[in-house]
DNA sequence: ACCACGGCAATTTTT
DNA sequence: TTGCCGTGGT
């Protein structure tokens, strides 16, 4: 083909705004795209790739695009294919982990891994750690398994192997490092690779194999990374190593939406990128296509309270829109009732339920909301929650499957050696563990040795032999079967199905259904929509990729998407989504910002970013609600409005109350039981005894002094001078005033 | 092997 | 308040 000038591919740039165009058509080289919420980030990424292919003449083979979630990777691929109108087999689009996995699978020998290494998830990892602690008789009070796990993952994320960790003679740290070392040894022996290991191992693979590194550097002319603000130290190092001096790198991110610092994400990678990658071109996408300007103004004002930002101000060519509604419930039930009532109104106005989302800071908040939704017969769906492949029954089934592939997988063996119960008690398992440890062999080997030399005989010995025979039998039986048939067989013969069928309650039923669903998933898997399946056949060869898929892609809980449901989720899981109508519930000090994050300025800023993320999810209408009295950990707690509310410009806010109803008069004595039960109270009984000069507190305006008063009962009005807010007249029946 | 009880803590979550 | 964990009883 002849040279293509930009004019010939203008369709690619046609529907883009100037900033997007700049980002898409920038010459190859390093680029940082600061993409605000709703600014068409994915669009730019996808168009950029198309541009690189069509104008810069890069082969899809030379492009690597990295995301954080499988969902994002899928979406990117789909949209790219739609844009180009062709199917792209040999372009690498995937998560950090799936790409690392791919490298390790291809170069398992160079990576010093067994060919059939298995991926373990954090749940398996935790089990492994617990076992380790027990084996070594280490006090799990001083070394809580979670902390140990956190330590190990943390080290890996920083790229540190045990011998590289500086203990400075600290005994506690020393113990941690030793545990890390033991843990790693166990993984090596069982051919197990955890999530952090995938990344670290592939980094080492490239670092220690100059020829491999040269190969991939030559191959990938351009690397693209999405959600760059979420990268951790290891991912940054990985990217830098792979890019080398030659490749062009495009990273897209938003420092204002960095909400995963607590799990190792380093926002500062954005600045580091600008400094360490040569001649970085920075583009800001600030035009927003999602929200009304009222919502964007609120978001801008809120986030301006953070220091050290890269700087970005969202704007829209669209309408001002409705003000942001703030509702102060007198308790959490009242808050929930307000939300559900309002949703009903919105639905009557013509919104679909699925267009409405309720966001909250912590999962515990969902309960009251759910109860209210159920009571009012409003269909809803909770986003998040337990994933399919993380369910107990599924993990058990997968453990059997893993044993078929690899008898030395101790974690799996231990998981199912006595599930369903077959008379192998903790004592027996302990003996096996002891032996495995002292002789440095796997549990499977220890089992055989113990039965062989009579260490375990009688009842226990028989049970152990029976288990070993079961595994061998399953292996033999399933030879030549297709993947889903293998799983059906294993579910049946292992006794898992019966085990759950006999479980009392509806739980067992659900578990049996899940096991059946696993078979369906396997069938779908072999029918090959998943990338991992390309080469594998339908039978046992598909087992390994299927297990990897299960660990890496823990199952999207996006079922029932067709049902028209109100969407409930945490603010974290809302990132990346948008809804016409958004409620943010529990906007209270201590809850949001969460009390665990209020002390350190850095963490508080992350809370604020989380709020920013929440606000920018809303397209047309945003509601912020809070409760003055909330049941927390079984105790009624007085709550104050969140500081974030006060950081929003007042002229964008509108205080709402239920039509014509007084939700609560200002009562001096609040009997918690009474309040929780009463839906509405007529003002008059139990108004606070307020007097001129008295100090009062208002949830939104803070503290002030009563200057003046007029009227009586619920209509009574008082003039209050608030610190920093000026004088205001407030109706006693409406304003939530608390005497101090 | 299984269940019932008491003590205890209690963000956020992807891979 | 819930839910997890370890303990002790059957």
TrEMBL record:
Catalyses which reaction(s): ATP + H2O = ADP + phosphate + H(+); Couples ATP hydrolysis with the unwinding of duplex DNA by translocating in the 3'-5' direction
Gene Ontology BP annotations: recombinational repair; response to radiation
Binding-site list for ATP: 35-42
Positions of the UvrD-like helicase ATP-binding domain: 14-292
Keyword vocabulary terms for this entry: ATP-binding, DNA-binding, Helicase, Hydrolase, Isomerase, Nucleotide-binding
Top EC class, one word: isomerase
Keyword Hydrolase appears in the UniProt entry: yes
Pfam family, one: UvrD-helicase
Transmembrane segments: none
Domain UvrD-like helicase C-terminal per the UniProt entry, residue ranges: 293-576
One function term, GO molecular function aspect: 3'-5' DNA helicase activity
UniProt xrefs under InterPro entries: DExx_box_DNA_helicase_dom_sf (IPR013986), DNA_helicase_UvrD-like_C (IPR014017), DNA_helicase_UvrD/REP (IPR000212), P-loop_NTPase (IPR027417), UvrD-like_ATP-bd (IPR014016)
GO cellular component annotations of the record: cytosol; DNA helicase complex
EC code: 5.6.2.4
Source taxon at top rank: Bacteria
PANTHER family for the chain: ATP-DEPENDENT DNA HELICASE SRS2, UVRD / RECB / PCRA DNA HELICASE FAMILY MEMBER
Family: Belongs to the helicase family. UvrD subfamily.
Protein name (record): DNA 3'-5' helicase
């Amino acid at each position: 083909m002849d040279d293509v000038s930009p004019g010939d591919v203008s369709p690619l740039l046609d529907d883009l705004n100037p900033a997007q165009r700049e980002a898409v058509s920038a010459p190859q080289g390093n680029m940082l795209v600061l993409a605000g919420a709703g600014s068409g980030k994915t669009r730019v990424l996808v168009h950029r790739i198309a541009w690189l292919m069509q104008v810069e003449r890069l082969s899809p083979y030379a492009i690597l695009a990295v995301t954080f979630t499988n969902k994002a990777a899928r979406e990117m691929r789909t949209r790219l294919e739609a844009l180009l109108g062709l199917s792209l087999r040999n372009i690498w689009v995937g998560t950090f982990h799936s790409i690392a996995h791919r490298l390790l699978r291809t170069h398992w020998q160079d990576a010093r891994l067994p060919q059939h290494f298995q991926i373990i998830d954090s749940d398996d990892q935790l089990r492994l750690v617990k076992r380790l602690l027990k084996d070594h008789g280490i006090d799990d009070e001083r070394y809580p398994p979670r902390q140990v796990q956190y330590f190990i993952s943390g080290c890996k994320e920083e790229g540190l192997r045990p011998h590289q960790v500086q203990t400075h003679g600290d005994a506690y740290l020393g113990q941690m490092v030793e545990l890390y070392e033991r843990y790693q040894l166990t993984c090596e022996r069982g051919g197990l690779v955890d999530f952090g290991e995938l990344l670290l191992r592939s980094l080492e693979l490239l670092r220690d194999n100059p020829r491999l590194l040269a190969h991939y550097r030559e191959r990938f002319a351009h690397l693209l990374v999405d959600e760059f603000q979420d990268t951790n130290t290891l991912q940054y190092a990985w990217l830098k190593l792979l890019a080398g001096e030659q490749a062009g790198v495009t990273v897209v991110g938003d420092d204002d939406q960095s909400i995963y610092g607590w799990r190792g994400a380093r926002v500062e990678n954005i600045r580091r990128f600008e400094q360490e990658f040569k001649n970085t071109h920075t583009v800001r996408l600030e035009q927003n296509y999602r929200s009304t300007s009222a919502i964007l103004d609120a978001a801008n004002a809120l986030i301006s309270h953070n220091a050290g930002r890269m700087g970005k101000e969202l704007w829209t060519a669209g309408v001002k829109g409705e003000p942001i509604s703030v509702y102060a419930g007198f308790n959490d039930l009242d808050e929930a009732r307000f939300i559900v009532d309002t949703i009903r109104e919105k639905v009557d106005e013509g919104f679909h339920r699925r267009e409405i989302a309720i966001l909250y800071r912590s999962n515990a908040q969902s309960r009251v909301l759910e109860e209210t939704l159920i009571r009012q017969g409003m269909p809803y769906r909770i986003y998040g929650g337990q994933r399919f492949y993380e369910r107990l029954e599924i993990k058990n089934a997968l453990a059997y499957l893993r044993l078929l592939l690899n008898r030395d997988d101790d974690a799996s063996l231990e998981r199912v050696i006595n599930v369903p119960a077959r008379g192998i008690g903790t004592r027996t398992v302990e003996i096996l563990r002891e032996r495995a440890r002292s002789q440095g062999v796997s549990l499977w080997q220890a089992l055989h040795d113990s039965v062989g030399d009579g260490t375990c005989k009688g009842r226990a010995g028989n049970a152990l032999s029976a288990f070993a025979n079961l595994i061998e039998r399953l292996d033999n039986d399933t030879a030549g079967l297709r993947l889903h048939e293998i799983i059906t067989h294993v579910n049946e013969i292992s006794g898992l199905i019966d085990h759950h069928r006999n479980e009392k309650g509806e739980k067992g039923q659900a578990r049996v259904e899940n096991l059946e669903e696993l078979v369906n998933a396997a069938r779908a898997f072999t029918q090959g929509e998943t990338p991992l399946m390309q080469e594998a056949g339908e039978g046992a060869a598909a087992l390994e990729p299927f297990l990897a898929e299960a660990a890496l892609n823990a199952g999207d809980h996006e079922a029932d998407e067709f049902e028209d449901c109100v969407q409930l989720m945490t603010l974290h899981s809302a990132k990346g989504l948008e809804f016409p109508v958004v409620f943010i519930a529990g906007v209270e000090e201590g809850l949001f910002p969460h009390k665990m994050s209020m002390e350190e300025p850095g963490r508080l800023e992350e809370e604020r970013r989380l709020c920013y993320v929440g606000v920018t999810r809303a397209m047309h209408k945003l509601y912020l609600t809070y409760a003055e009295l909330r049941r927390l950990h079984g105790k009624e707690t007085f709550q104050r409005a969140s500081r974030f509310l006060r950081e929003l410009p007042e002229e964008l806010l509108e205080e709402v109350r239920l039509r014509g109803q007084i939700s609560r008069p200002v009562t001096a004595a609040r009997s918690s039981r009474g309040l929780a039960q009463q839906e509405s109270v007529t003002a008059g009984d139990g108004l606070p005894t307020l007097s001129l000069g008295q100090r009062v507190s208002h949830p939104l305006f803070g503290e002030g002094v009563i200057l003046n008063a007029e009227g009586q009962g619920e209509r009574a009005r008082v003039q209050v001078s608030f610190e920093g807010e000026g004088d205001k007249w407030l109706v006693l029946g409406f304003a939530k005033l608390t005497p101090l």
